[in-house]
Specification:
α2 runs antiparallel to α6. This protein folds into 4 domains: about 1-55 and about 205-245, no CATH class; about 65-195, no CATH class; about 275-360, Helix Hairpins, CATH 1.10.287; about 360-515, 2-Layer Sandwich (Heat Shock Protein 90), CATH 3.30.565. It has 13 helices and 14 strands. By secondary structure, the protein is an alpha+beta fold.
Length: about 525
């Protein structure tokens, strides 16, 4: 017994870890076997139920009949035999001479009690299960008249005419007279004309149950296959699929703090194991990237901190030398030292700001975009006035309240306007529009526009076309533009669910458009201007 238990346990473990293809074949085989057994049982039970609806006298008024003209009814009969006319005539004729119809076949039908369930059919008052106009002459089944039928009222006249026309009428009469009577003194009817009454047909309950039994076979097979498919999915597929789906969703959400649970040792189980390996590798890579970014921030912060003090000292000493020196060349050298010290200080500050910007997140909150844009336009006018250019302002469709981060929007607007004012010849255009939950802030200028290199790299940190040209020509730069403005705009727009696009206007000048996700809450009424 212990061996059987151990063997069954091993077999169960092997089946639990078999391949998907093997498991599918086993589930399908069990489903088909169960469907076959259930079909036999179902059809057998329905067959018994259908037979129970049949009446006991279902065949009482069908089969072979002959006409009993005296009683006015059809009585059950059977074909006695096949005869040759000459033999009958020889048996009944006193001189033993053959009839003039010698050689023609004759069939005699004799009233019979061999079928105890058969009953006579009255021509005047037939039973309800006898179909009128459905009686056929037995000879029509082998002749050209197989499609003819007789009504019960036509049978007496038809029988008299047919009996006289076909061979064996006299032999039938003499045979009937020569047969011994029964206990009641009645002799059986003998005729050379026989009739067939068709089966009355199955009752409606019987046909309904029989059709149900036929229809139950495909229904049982489909049901068994459906149950087997559901069990196969729940036991073999649902677990691994749900585990991988949840893992994919959490990985897409940058959540790697979980483990993919182990599954069976089949194809999907091995795929889940590979998912876990991928998650672990992503977690390791993300940890390394985080450590590298953290180290970079620490180095930048330490660099900016350690560089700021000596630069302050250098700048102060250079300014002192410039004020005390009498020689013009010394004052120029002191001024140059001061400019370079300020440039290095600006670089140190930008490195600190860049690290802070990388960790910046946007926090959308209900914001009146009309009021915000009015303030942004006022700030832009100050920047344009300081640069000596005009500012044109336009807005379209701004809602009174939308979800947006006012600080992020203001920083992007300031950077775009400052960049445009620095390159414009006479005019800077600032516009804002809102549509379908998206705010678009566009700044254009009438300057020379973006070069191909600027369109490709202007949104990168520390990229400046002036600095690039100076480095190429070996000329010094004033360090006033560090190349972070458009990078900050692109980064904040992306974190706000949008993007920064740069292009050149057909009439000339640069165009920078920042798009932000700024949906309006569904319960608030949107009014646009």
């Amino acid at each position: 017994m212990a061996r059987l238990t151990a063997a069954a346990r091993r077999l169960r473990a092997r089946m639990a870890n078999c391949s998907i293809r093997t498991a599918f074949a086993l589930y399908a085989a069990v489903a088909l076997l169960a469907a076959l057994v259930l079909s036999f049982v179902t059809t057998g039970l329905l067959g018994l139920l259908a037979n129970a609806t049949l009446p006991d006298d279902l065949l009482a008024h069908s089969g072979t009949y002959v006409l009993d003209a005296d009683a006015g009814q059809l009585v059950p009969a059977e074909a006695l035999s096949w005869y040759e006319t000459s033999a009958v005539d020889a048996a009944v004729a006193p001189d033993g001479q053959a009839s003039e119809r010698d050689g023609e076949p004759v069939v005699l039908y004799v009233e019979s009690a061999a079928r105890p369930d058969a009953a006579p059919v009255s021509l005047a008052d037939p039973p309800a299960d006898v179909r009128d106009a459905a009686v056929t002459d037995l000879t029509w089944a082998i002749s050209e008249d197989g499609a003819r039928t007789l009504s019960l009222a036509e049978i007496p006249a038809y029988d008299a005419a047919a009996a006289s026309e076909r061979p064996g009428a006299e032999a039938a009469a003499e045979l009937a007279a020569s047969l011994p009577p029964n206990a009641d003194g009645a002799r059986p009817v003998v005729s050379n004309v026989g009739y067939y009454l068709p089966h009355p047909g199955d009752p409606e309950p019987y046909r309904t149950i029989a059709n149900l039994a036929i229809a139950s076979v495909p229904v049982v097979f489909v049901a068994c296959l459906a149950v087997a498919g559901r069990l196969f999915y729940r036991r073999r597929l649902a677990g691994p699929i749900n585990a991988m789906g949840e893992a994919a969703e959490r990985i897409a959400a940058s959540d790697l703090d979980f483990r993919v649970p182990p599954q069976r040792a089949d194809e999907l189980g091995r795929l889940c194991a590979r998912f876990e390996d991928m998650r672990a590798e992503l977690e390791r890579s993300e940890r390394e990237l985080w450590l590298a970014a953290e180290n970079r921030r620490r180095v930048n912060a330490a660099f900016a901190h350690d560089l700021r003090t000596p630069l302050t000292v250098v700048r102060g000493q250079a300014e002192l030398i410039g004020r005390l020196a009498a020689d013009g060349a010394v004052r120029e050298a002191a001024a140059a030292i001061t400019r370079q010290a300020e440039r290095l200080s600006a670089y140190a500050d930008s490195m600190r700001d860049l690290d802070t910007l990388d960790a910046t997140t946007v926090s959308p909150a209900p914001l009146d975009l009309r009021a915000w844009f009015a303030q942004a336009a006022a700030d832009a006018r100050e920047v344009a006035r300081a640069a000596g250019v005009e500012l044109a302002v336009a807005s379209e469709g701004l809602p009174e309240r939308a979800e947006a981060d006012a600080a992020a929007l203001a920083r992007v607007a300031d950077n775009l306007v400052a960049n445009a004012a620095r390159h414009a010849r006479a005019t800077v255009r600032l516009s804002a529009s809102w549509s379908d939950g998206t705010l678009t802030l566009t700044v254009a200028d009438d300057g020379p526009g973006f070069s191909e290199a600027a369109l490709a790299h202007a949104a990168e940190p520390f990229w400046s076309e002036a600095r690039r040209d100076a480095a190429r020509d070996g000329a010094p730069t004033d360090g006033s533009h560090l190349g972070l403005g458009l990078y900050v705009c692109a980064l904040l727009a992306e974190r706000h669910g949008g993007e920064l696009r740069m292009a050149n206007a057909p009439e000339g000048g640069a165009v920078a458009a920042a798009r932000f996700s700024a949906p309006v809450k569904s319960y608030e009424t949107v009014t646009k201007r």
